[in-house]
Amino acid sequence: MSASLTPSNEEERAVNTDAPEATPSRRYRITFATTGPLAYVSVLDLGTVWERSLRRAGIVLRYSQGFNPRPKIQFASPLPTGCGGAAEWLDIWLESPM
Q: Residue 12: its pLDDT value, please?
């Protein structure tokens, strides 16, 4: 799986301006391909793979606020299982710029 990481065009912004400890976060868009056997992996499993690989790489992700915090990861127009894609997008929010 090949991927490229590019910063988005949005400026740094606070996720929740009501919270006193709100810090700015940065959104990055990752472009990757799902070809061959990877086309048969569901988008939920791909999310788990990306979450674990980013954590393993030591990249500090922004987490949602609430009782069960989850990393802020979003797939843009996920394809159905079985359909491969040459340019799929994944947005991640980081605690600090890279």
A: 47
pTM for the whole thing?
0.71
**Residues contacting residue 98 through CB under 8 Å, at least 6 positions apart:** 5, 7, 26, 28, 59
The C-alpha atoms of residue 57 and residue 66 are separated, in whole angstroms, by 25
More confident residue, 3 or 13: 3
Buried b (16+ CB within 10 A) or exposed e, 41-70: eeeeebbeebeeebeeeeeebbeeeeeeee
CA atoms within 13 A on the CB side of 92: 23
How does strand 3-7 pair with strand 24-34?
antiparallel
For residue 17 the two structure tokens come to: 């301006």
pLDDT for res 89? 94
Measured between alpha carbons, how far is 66 from 56 in angstroms, rounded to an integer? 24
Dihedral angle, C-alpha 77, 78, 84, 90, nearest 10 °: 80
